Amino acid sequence: MKTEVLPCCSTCLDVLGKYGGPVTLPCGHNGCLQCMASIQQRKAECPLCRRPFPASECQLTVNHELRRLLSLAAALTTVEHENGWQAVTTHQAQTTHPAELAESGMQGLMLVPTAPPMHLTLSGVLGGGGDLLSCEAPAWLPDSYAPSCGTCHAPFIAMRRSRHHCRLCGQIFCNRCSSHRMLLPPKFQTKLPERVCDTCATTLKPLQPFLAGTISEAVRPAVHDVTDASVLRSWLNNPFSMSLAADIYKATNIARSWAAVGSTRPEKAIPPAVLQGAAGFAILSVAKVGMGWSGALGTGLVVAKRADGSWSAPSSLSLWGLGWGIQFGGALHDLLLVLKTKAAVQAFCGSMHLGLGGSTGLAVGPLGRQAEANLRASPTAASLCYSYSCSRGIYAGVSLEGSVVSVRNSVNTDFYGRPVTARQLLLDDTIAPPAAAQSLFTALTELLAGPCGPALEAVSPLQRALPPPPSQSIFTAEASETDDEESIPDSEAHADGSQQQAASQPQPYSTHLAATESYTGLPYAHSSALQDEEEQMPGMGMFDD
């Protein structure tokens, strides 16, 4: 049978209905759905008779009866060969032919595979050629192809109405008509939500829960999980990270650095009394520059401890602050905030909260350490937390500082693949801990264990929630011998033989919150306000709700 029986589209000159299926115009002429839709967007006239078919009067739909006729015509051109397989002819000629076709005298024929097409775009899915999960990335239309938006037909204007391509269909739309961000099918090979038009967003919406649990960045194991000196990125934490995966990496790096300090220099580590019973941690990397007035900007995350002992899903944070005082220089601070109570975690669940504090700092060279006590307040909660920092740079001064910490909802959406709130991540336990944050959870667990891990494990959960007794309170090196004797129970004194011997033995909690002069080899930053606070610590009232 001659191949001319298969009609062609007057626009693409290919088999009729190849792109989206056949469509019949009001004038009676036929064409491909995508071809006619493109013509309707630019100049709604039939390419053969020039009869108009505007979108307001003519809605293009697939002519299913014509599609069945085309399928029948294609089946009639099928030729059965001697081995039982079938060859389907088309209107396109082929210059080279298989030997068996040449012997049969069938010239100008081309074999078409009977398997589904290897490249399935959205038009093929809408035409019934496959499912949406098998859809692949289309070829984007050139910018010159669409002088106006494909949905609202508003003309594009520089700086006011720019062109945006829909990642699913490849068409061009304005910002208002393509404001949605959705996860795309697996064959698009992207793990972040991408820009799609309103029509494609409606098509993809039912698949979002499935895609968020299979291809989002949260469910993929972390690729960058090495934080030792062999990796250049671990030398300096970027304070302006743009993704939660980068926040997880630098939070892991900061937590492991504090755990290493606890194992090599226990007197400079975070006191176990502060870590004991912690409800969560906020870990940030902040850049600070000041001369009289100072400014700070950074990013990080917050993670909470659940009732069963596991860790919650992390939530991304951003920080910016201002300070005033006698200060000069610039430094990068790796902050670790210990959240002692659930109220402190709730303060990080709001869209924005304030922080107030003061510090006396000195950092000269590659490393300095500092400890502070800060008040955090949000519209829903307020609580006290402890801040420990590792500084790099040249900075010295005394200042009064305020900061604003806000939740980066867009970063959380990109990481988890769907819109989530900080409360859902930290308190509601509705989202499982992501696989991408397992290295962070391991580092925090090691930090809580520390050199005094066995001692903390021996304490019951009820005792962890209560303030430690006076014998376990933090005291300064300048405390008198009488005070040391009073802080040790009689039972311990009799067990050792005398109260004097018990007082001379080192206590597991006799550690300064701030760096001391015995920390040689590395410069440090010191908080004078914290020393006054340590004298009040035997009551541990600061750890109460």
Please give the structural blueprint.
Elements: E1 22-24, E2 30-32, H1 33-42, H2 64-76, E3 78-80, E4 86-88, H3 99-104, H4 122-126, E5 164-165, E6 172-173, E7 180-182, E8 194-196, H5 198-204, H6 208-212, H7 244-264, H8 272-275, E9 280-304, E10 315-339, H9 342-347, E11 352-377, E12 382-407, H10 409-416, H11 422-426, H12 438-449, H13 453-457, H14 461-465, H15 481-486, H16 490-496, H17 499-504, H18 528-534
Antiparallel strand pairs: 1-2, 3-4, 5-6, 7-8, 9-10, 10-12, 11-12
Helix pairs in contact: 7-12
GO molecular function: phosphatidylinositol binding; zinc ion binding
Biased composition (Low complexity): 498-508
InterPro entries: SH3_domain_YSC84-like, Ysc84_actin-binding, Znf_C3HC4_RING-type, Znf_FYVE, Znf_FYVE-rel, Znf_FYVE_PHD, Znf_RING, Znf_RING/FYVE/PHD
Would you write up a description of this structure?
Residues 462-545 are annotated as: Disordered. Keywords: Metal-binding, Zinc, Zinc-finger. Residues 9-50 form the RING-type domain. This protein has helices at residues 33-42, 64-76, 99-104, 122-126, 198-204, 208-212, 244-264, 272-275, 342-347, 409-416, 422-426, 438-449, 453-457, 461-465, 481-486, 490-496, 499-504, 528-534, and strands at residues 22-24, 30-32, 78-80, 86-88, 164-165, 172-173, 180-182, 194-196, 280-304, 315-339, 352-377, 382-407. It has 545 residues and is α+β, with helices and mostly antiparallel strands. The protein folds into 4 domains: 3-76, Zinc/RING finger domain, C3HC4 (zinc finger) (Herpes Virus-1, 2-Layer Sandwich), CATH 3.30.40; 122-215, Zinc/RING finger domain, C3HC4 (zinc finger) (Herpes Virus-1); 244-457, no CATH class; 470-543, no CATH class. The model is unreliable at 80-98, 105-109, 362-369, 375-381 and 452-545 (pLDDT under 50).
